[in-house]
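Q: What structure does this chain adopt?
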Amino acid sequence: MDINFAIVTCSDTRKLEEDFAGSALKELIEENLGWLVISHVIVRDERADIAAAIVEAVDCKGADIVITCGGSGLSLRDVTPEATADVCDRNVPGIAEAMRAYSLKITGRAMLSRAVCMQRGKTLVVNFPGSLKAARENWMGIYEQLEHAVQMTAGGGH
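A:
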């Protein structure tokens, strides 16, 4: 199945060439036949900027899944979950719960994640951590369900 992804890295300090977590996620995505990253951008840790990048990825680029990278922790600058909620319609809590459950087997710090997964229309928006190690771990916890999630979001049957 073809799935188009957009990656939105949320950082005040990183440039694209320094986005190790986002780059690793791109590699992991493209290991799957037919999965493609159609957009990879970096935006400031500002709620409005993150929200605008999600809208751009969905409404203009046509992403099936938007992965945000960073800004889902406890720092006061971490506003990615709030920005996601600002522009999405429905909560999909099981995906974020699965990410935390998988990572909790590796580190207790996974419980500090405020990541969410939501839908904007027929697109999933999934918050990933900005750490390279944590981003890879979270991917491993959910990637096998993404094809079915996209099919369901698009109106497919079980």
